[in-house]
Amino acid sequence: MQQLKLPSHNNGTYPQKSTDSFTIPQQKERLENLLYQKVQQGEDISPCIEALYYLASKQTTEDQLQVMWAEVVRERSAFNSLQRVIITAFAILGMIAFLNGAFRSVKPSAAVVNPPAVQPH
Fold this sequence. Notes:
By secondary structure, the chain is mainly alpha-helical. It has one domain (19-105). Helices cover 68% and strands 0% of the residues. The protein has three helices and no strands. The chain has helices at 24-41, 46-105, 110-113. The protein starts with 23 loop residues before the first helix and ends in an 8-residue tail after the last helix.
């Protein structure tokens, strides 16, 4: 594919931006303007058409990647939430088991088990 040089609308007061700094819709708009100019001048428009097809497929690919990335982030967030719930549940079960064992191993003192008899007056 030929390298397309887009006409710049630079009057010399500002440095010219590279085409990489433009968004895809801006690049498409510039190519459509160039295509219109080439049609009016009777020049070959096939490189412009190829570039427009490329930009359209690039935009579609970027859109698909954004959808896939959003899905990955959603799945990761759901997994992290589930992981926190499971860790919390096991921590609570561990505390219950520990406290149950701790209270069972404590032997009550004799004074608590056999309180002193109350003498009637």
